[in-house]
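Run log, item B.
One chain of 201 residues. Sequence copied directly from the ordering sheet:
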Amino acid sequence: MQLTALALVGTLTPSPARSSSELLARQVLDALAEHDVTGELVRLVDHDVRPGVQADMGEGDAWPAIRAKVLAADILVLATPIWLGQPSSVTKRALERLDAELSETDDEGRLLTYGKVAVVAVVGNEDGAHHTSAELFQALDDVGFTIPAAGVTYWVGRAMEGTDYQDLDETPEPTAGTTATAARNAAHLARLLRAQPYPAG
């Protein structure tokens, strides 16, 4: 069963500059590829995603095209840096736009996001990966995504130091291990949900 994944990256840094959040998101996509999942990546800051909680905020809004990719994918990877102990503002804007999915259902009354799996990737130079992933998990669950067991991978540097994930000589084994586990569990769960969807309400 061929599955697809979409990684939404909430870095505040526009392309083509390097991004630690994008690096970790790409590593998740690479790990998913080992389970026959093809992936695509969107750096949100490169697009004019308007503030709001509707599926389409009018002319020039880039979210409708991104939303179409979200709904076409089996797995959503949401990657964010930590700023001031929080997910980035760009990541939060994507979550606000996903709020519109609470008003969208299929012919049997299920949210269009039901049956889709979401995993989280977090990078930062301060404590807070658990807090940040908890915020994202709850929001993603609220709008209909299913979170697999061990559905997060992260790296945080030591407090008050300036090392970036992208500047490490190699990926630390704990991060590589959690990335592999999150990908494996996400692919497994997505296949189960594709084969046996949630019941209609």
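Observations after the first pass:
- The chain has a mean pLDDT of 96.
- Residues 3-195 form a domain with the Rossmann fold fold (CATH 3.40.50.360).
Flagged for discussion on Thursday.
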